[in-house]
UniProtKB/TrEMBL annotation:
The keyword Heme applies. Keywords: Heme, Iron, Metal-binding, Monooxygenase, Oxidoreductase, Signal. The gene is Cyp2j6-002. It comes from Phallusia mammillata. This is Cytochrome P450 2C42-like. Heme binds at residue 438. Belongs to the cytochrome P450 family. GO terms for cellular component: cytoplasm. Gene3D superfamilies: Cytochrome P450 (1.10.630.10).
Length: 493
C-alpha cells in the first residue's frame, strides 16, 4: 500500500513538473523554465524592467511560464493595437491570481479582477450611467471636483506656511479620495477627519504591501495549492487586513444608504446600485459585489491619480521653463480668482499637453492590469489557448522612438500638433484599453487637470535650497512612484 502511495505521489509530482515546463504548440518563444516554478526566478520584483530585457532577446511577443500558468508579454504598438483596439473581445478576461482571490474573494467580485461577461458588463454600464446622471462627460461633474479646490489650496497654503519645504502627498491623497467618496457616498470629508485619515491610511498601507507579492514568501504560498488557507506571509495578512477595514467602512456606508435612501431621488453610486439590486430580475448585482466594486474605485482610483500628480509636480519643478509657460497660460485664461473648470482645458493646450506628457513619461502602470484570453486566439502568428495571461508592456509604446521624438526627454510638445492644438496619439494608452479600459478615465482626466491647474494658479513650485533637480528615478510599488521628495511652495499672490 505504502509503495503505491509513494509511486502515486511521485507520478503526481512528475506530472506537475512536466506541466510547469511545457508550453502549448506554436506558442511565443521564451525562456525554458525550471520544474515546478517555471521562470519565476527570472521575474521577481521589477518585472517591468525584466520584460524589456527579455524582449531584446525574444522579440515583441514572448512567453514566460510561472508555475503552470502561461504568460505572454506583448511589446510594441502593433500588438497593443490588436489586443486593445482592433480585436479586444478575446483578450478581455483577467487571470485568476492568488492576490486577486485574497482581496476580492473566491468569486473575484468587483470590477478590476472580475471575468468579462454579463455581470461585469452590467457593473460597468451602471458606473457610466451614474456618471451621466451626476453630470460626468458634460460640464456638471467637474463641480464635484471644483468643490474640493478651496480646501485643497488651503491645505497646501497651511503646510507651506508652517514648513520651509513640503511633501504634497497627503494633500493629494485627501483631495483625490474625496472626489471618489462624493461619487460613491454622496459626501466629502474634511482633511482632518479621523475616519477619513484612517481610510487613507489603510489604502496607502495596502499599496505599500502589494510590492511584496513578488517576494519569496508570497511565491511559496501561491505555488502550493491551499497553503494560503492555513498560512499567509506578513504582507498577505496586511493586504487582507487593509481590504477588510476598507470594506467594513464601505459596508457601514451601505447600511446608512439603505436606511436613508429615497428611490425616486438616488444621491450617489451606492443609491443607484441598491436600486438596481432591488429592481433586477437577474442576479447581476449583489451587496457583496457592491462592497468590492467601491473598494475597486478606492484602490484603482486613488494611488494612480495621486502618483500622477506627484510626477507632475516633480517634472514642473525640474523644468522651470515649462512651469513658467503654464503659469502664463493660467494667468491669461483664468487669472487668479476664478476657479478652473474642465472646459478651460480647451483654451490651455500647453497645460493639457503637459499633463499628457507626465502620464507618458511617468508610465506609472508599466504592466497595467493583466488581461487574459477567454477563448483560443492567434496573435503575432502564434496560437494562444484560452486562459493565457497577457502582460502588456506599456514602456514599449510610451517610450518607442517610432512614436515619440525624444522619448527619454520630458517634452509636452509631443502632444501638440503643428497648429498648437492638443492631438491624440495612438501609442499613448495610460488608461489601458479594449473592453477593460480604465473605468474611471474621465474622472481621472478631470481631476488631473483641475488639481494641477489650481495648484499652479496659486503657487510657484521650486526645488529645496541647494538642490538643482529632483531625482527622476522611480521606486516600484503598486505603481511606479517618484522617490519621496520635498519642494518649496511659494504663493503667487
Ligand atoms: C491617473 C489615474 C489613473 C490611471 C493611470 C489608471 C489606469 C488604469 C489602467 C492602466 C487600468 C487597466 C486597464 C486595462 O486592463 O487595460 C485601469 C483599470 C481600472 N481603473 Fe483606472 N486609472 C486611473 C484612475 C482611475 C480612477 C479615478 C478610477 C475610479 C473609479 C479608476 C477605476 C478603474 C477600474 C474600476 C478599473 C478596472 C476596469 C475593468 O477591469 O473593467 N481608475 N486603470
Amino acid at each position: 500500500m505504502l509503495v503505491w502511495l509513494i509511486l502515486g505521489a511521485f507520478c503526481l509530482l512528475l506530472y506537475f513538473a512536466i506541466t510547469t515546463m511545457t508550453k502549448p504548440k506554436n506558442f511565443p518563444p521564451g525562456p525554458v523554465g525550471l520544474p515546478f516554478i517555471g521562470s519565476f526566478h527570472l521575474i521577481g520584483p521589477n518585472f517591468n524592467k525584466k520584460i524589456e530585457k527579455m524582449a531584446a532577446i525574444y522579440g515583441n511577443i514572448f512567453s514566460v511560464k510561472l508555475k503552470n500558468m502561461n504568460f505572454v508579454c506583448i511589446c510594441g504598438y502593433d500588438l497593443f493595437a490588436e489586443v486593445m483596439n482592433e480585436n479586444p473581445k478575446p483578450y478581455s478576461g483577467r487571470p485568476k491570481l492568488l492576490m486577486y482571490e485574497l482581496t476580492r474573494g473566491p468569486n473575484l467580485e468587483g470590477v478590476v479582477v472580475g471575468q468579462h461577461g454579463p455581470r461585469l458588463v452590467a457593473q460597468r454600464k451602471l458606473f457610466h450611467s451614474v456618471f451621466r446622471h451626476l453630470g460626468i462627460g458634460n460640464k456638471n461633474f467637474d463641480k464635484i471636483i471644483v468643490q474640493e479646490l478651496p480646501e485643497f489650496v488651503e491645505s497646501i497654503e497651511n503646510m507651506s506656511e508652517a514648513n520651509q519645504t513640503v511633501d504634497l502627498t497627503s494633500t493629494f491623497d485627501c483631495a483625490v479620495l474625496n472626489v471618489l467618496a462624493y461619487y460613491t457616498f454622496g459626501n466629502r470629508y474634511s482633511y482632518g477627519d479621523e475616519k477619513f485619515k484612517w481610510l487613507i491610511h489603510c489604502n496607502n498601507e495596502f499599496f505599500k504591501e502589494v510590492e511584496q507579492v513578488f517576494g519569496v514568501a508570497f511565491t511559496i504560498v501561491s505555488f502550493i495549492p491551499y497553503l494560503h488557507k492555513i498560512w499567509l506571509p506578513k504582507a498577505g495578512k496586511a493586504i487582507q487586513y487593509c481590504c477588510r477595514e476598507l470594506e467594513a467602512f464601505i459596508g457601514s456606508e451601505i447600511e446608512y444608504h439603505k436606511k436613508t435612501r429615497d428611490q425616486n431621488h438616488p444621491r450617489d453610486f451606492i443609491d443607484f446600485y441598491l436600486e438596481e439590486m432591488s429592481s433586477q430580475s437577474s442576479k447581476l448585482f449583489s451587496e457583496s459585489d457592491l462592497r468590492k466594486t467601491v473598494l475597486d474605485f478606492f484602490q484603482a482610483g486613488t494611488e494612480t491619480t495621486t502618483t500622477t500628480l506627484k510626477w507632475a509636480v516633480l517634472y514642473v519643478v525640474n523644468n522651470p521653463d515649462i512651469q513658467e509657460k503654464i503659469h502664463a497660460e493660467i494667468d491669461e485664461v483664468l487669472g487668479f480668482d476664478k476657479w478652473p473648470c474642465y472646459e478651460d482645458r480647451l483654451k490651455m493646450p500647453f497645460t493639457e499637453a503637459t499633463i499628457m506628457e507626465v502620464q507618458r513619461k511617468a508610465n506609472i502602470a508599466p504592466i497595467g492590469v493583466l488581461h487574459s484570453t477567454n477563448k483560443a486566439v492567434k496573435l503575432g502568428g502564434y496560437n494562444l489557448p484560452k486562459g493565457t495571461c497577457i502582460v502588456p508592456c506599456y514602456h514599449s509604446i510610451h517610450y518607442s522612438p517610432k512614436h515619440w521624438k525624444n522619448p527619454n526627454q520630458f517634452d509636452p510638445t509631443n502632444f501638440l500638433d503643428a497648429d498648437g492644438k492638443v492631438g491624440t496619439r495612438p501609442a499613448f494608452m495610460p488608461f489601458g484599453g479594449g473592453l477593460r479600459i480604465c473605468l474611471g478615465m474621465n474622472i481621472a482626466k478631470q481631476e488631473l487637470f483641475l488639481f494641477f491647474v489650481t495648484m499652479l494658479q496659486h503657487f510657484k513650485l521650486q526645488p529645496p535650497p541647494g538642490v538643482l533637480k529632483l531625482d527622476e528615478k522611480y521606486v516600484s510599488g503598486g505603481t511606479l512612484q517618484p522617490k519621496s521628495y520635498q519642494i518649496v511652495v511659494k504663493s503667487r499672490r
